[in-house]
Amino acid sequence: MTANNLKKLLRALSEGRLDLNEAFEKLKHLPFESLENSHIDHHRDIRQGIPEVVFAEGKSTDDVVRISRLIYKRSGRLLITRANEEIKKKLRIKKARYYPDSRIIMAGEDTEKKGLVLVLTAGTSDRAVAEEASLTASFLGSQVERVYDVGVAGIHRLFAYKDAIQRARVIVVVAGMEGALPSVVGGLTDKIIIAVPTSTGYGTSLGGLTALFSMLNSCVPGIAVVNIDNGFGAGCLAHKINMLSINQ
Question: N or C: which end of the chain has fewer CB within 10 A?
Answer without folding.
Answer: C
